[in-house]
Amino acid sequence: MKFFVDTAEIDAIAELNDLGMVDGVTTNPSLILKSGRDILEVTKEICDMVDGPVSAEVVATEADAMLEEGKKLAGIAPNIAVKVPLTWAGLKTCKALSSQGTMVNVTLCFSANQALLAAKAGATFISPFIGRLDDLNLDGMDLIGDIRTIYDNYAFSTEILAASIRSVNHMKDAALIGADVATAPPGVIKQMANHVLTEKGLDQFVKDAAKAGIKIV
């Protein structure tokens, strides 16, 4: 499973990228606002740092305006994936951009039917939102599983990008079900290394090494 980092914070991306943990980056208007940076400037900086796809989202809601914004965003770098919402206008934009060879990430997906439409429109990525479904007492992983089955049934090339991930359990479950990509905040990815037994075992090793006077360098 590929890891995308869901942030526009350059330092956080760089730290994970140096460890080989970054296969791509996803951003949205809320993350750009949080970064306090100009969208074109920060997106270009991220694209220069990361080899994989960098999702940059349109803010228009009408198809013609979305397409114009999408073309401008795609011009930032070859690894841009233009992010459009799963609306009828977004699907029109997806079809137009994908037909021109531009990667498209169709976001705000909450049903298998929506995911099927996005694949038919040529989406590179479909972004089902796990956490927001969980907020409604629905199991977001059920949606990932449904999409996986449909895409496998018909050999769609659209990649399932599990989004709105809020916990390490979300990461594990998405991997078990077969999501192609998971995008998560840097903190969640770093938390995947934590386990209480690892910490307990390390503490004991350190104490025993001190007692034994073990020195390696």
Summarize the SSE layout with pairings.
Layout: E1 2-6, H1 10-18, E2 24-26, H2 29-35, H3 39-49, E3 54-57, H4 63-74, E4 80-85, H5 88-99, E5 103-109, H6 112-120, E6 125-128, H7 130-135, H8 140-154, E7 159-162, H9 168-177, E8 181-184, H10 186-191, H11 196-212
Parallel strand pairs: 1-2, 1-8, 2-3, 3-4, 4-5, 5-6, 6-7, 7-8
Q: How would you characterize the overall build of this protein?
A:
Helix content is about 55%, strand content about 15%. By secondary structure, the chain is α/β, with parallel strands linked by helices. α9 (about 170-175) links the parallel β7 (about 160) and β8 (about 180-185).
Outline of this structure?
The chain is of the alpha/beta class and 217 residues long. It has helices at residues 10-18, 29-35, 39-49, 63-74, 88-99, 112-120, 130-135, 140-154, 168-177, 186-191, 196-212; strands spanning 2-6, 24-26, 54-57, 80-85, 103-109, 125-128, 159-162, 181-184.
Structural class: alpha/beta
Question: Order of strands across the widest beta sheet?
Answer: 1-2-3-4-5-6-7-8
Mean pLDDT: 97
Shape designation: globular
- Low-pLDDT ranges: none
Oligomer: single chain
Assign a percent range to the helix content: 40-55%
H-E order:
EHEHHEHEHEHEHHEHEHH
Amino- and carboxy-terminal Cα gap: 37 Å
Please describe the biggest sheet, giving its number of strands, its sense, and whether it closes into a barrel: 8 strands, parallel, barrel
How much strand content do the residues show? 15-25%
